[in-house]
Amino acid sequence: MGSRAAGGAGGEQPQDDGVSEAVGEESRLLTREQLFTIVAAASINFSSMMCYSILGPFFPSELSQIGAKFMFVSGMFVSGCVTILFGMLDKVPSGPMFIGFCFLVRAMDAISFAAAMTASFSILAKAFPTNIATVLGSLEIFSGLGLVLGPPLGGFLYQSFGYEVPFITLGCIVLALVPVNMCLLPRYDSTPRKESFWKLILLPKVLILCLTIFSLSACLGFFDPTISLFILKTFKLPVGYVGLVFLGLALSYSLSSPLLGLVSDKLPYIRKWLLIFGDLMTAVCLFMLGPAPVLHIESQLWIFVLVLVLIGFSLGMSAIPVFPEILQCAYENGFEEGLSLLGLVSGLFNAMWSLGAFVGPILGGFLNEKLGFEWAAAIQGGWPLLSGLATGIFYIIETTRKSSSSSLQNPPGDNEERTHLMGNET
C-alpha cells in the first residue's frame, strides 16, 4: 500500500540499492494476482453493503407492519448469532465452501444490523420527537466508547484465548441484551401507511443531505485501509500505539456530539451552519492530514493527532443535524408524521451511510496505492468540500426564495398605504 517513499513525509531518504526503483516501478502496475485479490475483496464489500443499503426502500414499510420493537429485537438476536458464527469460520474447510460461508455470514450480519439500526432510529425519533438530535448526539458517546474499547479488548482476548473467543464473547453479550431490551423497550403502535421512498429522496434538500451523509461515511471509510499503514510507516510507532492515535478522533467525536445535538435542537436555525461549516472543516482537515505535498509541511505526529481531533469534531457538526433536517424537510413537503415516516428516514440515512462506507475504502485504497496517503487524503476531502459547497448554495437559494415570496405576499406599498389611511382616520 502506497508507492511513495517514507522519506517524502518524514525527511529520511532510504538507501538506494539499485533494486528499489525497479520494485517501485513494478508496484505501480497491478499483477494478475493483485487484480483478482482486489476483485475478490470488492465483491465481499459490495455484497455486504448492498444487502445493507438495499433494505432502505422497503424496510420502513415492513417496520410499520411488524413493529419497530420486534424488528429491533430480532435484528439484535440474529446479529448475536451471526457474530458467534464468525468465530466458527476457521472450522470450515478451505476453498469454495469457506468463501461461500463468509459471504453468507457477512450478508446475514448486514441484514440484521440494518434491521436493528433502522428500528432504533425510528424508536428514538418517536420517543424524543422534540430533541432527537440531542439524544442521537448523546448516544454517540457509546459509539466512541465502542471504537475505543473494541481493539484493545479484542486484542487481549485473541492473544489470550485464540481466534474464536472474541467473537463468541461479543455474540453472547449481544444475545444477553435481547431479553433485557424485550422487557425495557416500549411498544409503539403505528398505522401502516404507504409513504413514498422515491418522493422523499427526490426532494432537492434531501438529495443534498444524502450527499452529506455519503461524504462523511466515505471519509471515515477511507481511514480503514490506509491510516494505520501511514502511521506505522511515517512515525515508526509500535503496532500497539496505533490505536492510541485513533483515540483523538473517537473521543473528540463522542464528547462533542451531545453538545452539538443540544445546540441543534435548541437552535434549529443553526443546523444549516453546522452542516456547512462541518463539511468545509472536514475538507480542510483532510487536506492537512498528510499534509498535502503542495503545502511543503513535514508530517509530524502532533499535527497528525491534532487534525484527527478536529476531524472528529467536524464530523459531529455535520452528522448530528442531518437526521432532524431530513425529518423537517419531509414534514414541510406533506409527509404525515408517524412511525412509518421515521422508519423511512432512518432507512434512507443508513442506506446512504453504507454506500459511503463501501465507496470510501475502495477509492481511498486505490488513491493511496497510486498517489500516496498525503494526496489520497487531500483528494478524499473533495467529498465533504463538494457537499459543503452544495449545501451552502442550496440554503442561499432557499433563503432568497423565502424572502422574495414573503415580500410578494406583503408588499411594502400596502403597508405604507395602510399606515397612511390609519393616520388620516386619526
Structure at a glance:
This protein is mostly helical and 426 residues long.
Low-confidence stretches: 1-28, 47-58, 416-426
Largest sheet: none
What's the alpha carbon Rg, rounded to whole Å? 25 Å
Mean pLDDT: 77
* Helix percentage: over 70%
| Category by helix and strand content | mainly alpha
Order of helices and strands: HHHHHHHHHHHHHHHHHH
Cα distance spanning the termini: 84 Å
How many separate helices? 18
Number of strands: 0
Q: How much of the sequence is in beta strands?
A: under 5%
**What's the shape?**
globular
Structure in words:
This protein has 426 residues and is mainly alpha-helical. Helices cover 80% and strands 0% of the residues. It contains 18 helices and no strands. The protein has helices spanning 7-10, 20-27, 32-53, 59-66, 68-88, 96-127, 132-161, 164-184, 197-201, 204-235, 242-266, 271-289, 301-319, 322-332, 339-371, 373-380, 382-409, 412-425.
Secondary structure blueprint with pairings:
Elements (H helix, E strand, L loop, with lengths): L6 H4 L9 H8 L4 H22 L5 H8 L1 H21 L7 H32 L4 H30 L2 H21 L12 H5 L2 H32 L6 H25 L4 H19 L11 H19 L2 H11 L6 H33 L1 H8 L1 H28 L2 H14 L1
Helix pairs in contact: 3-6, 3-15, 4-15, 5-6, 5-8, 6-15, 7-11, 10-13, 10-14, 10-15, 10-17, 11-13, 12-13, 12-16, 12-17, 14-15, 15-16
Main traits of this protein?
80% helix, disordered N terminus, globular, disordered C terminus, 0% strand, 426 residues, mainly alpha
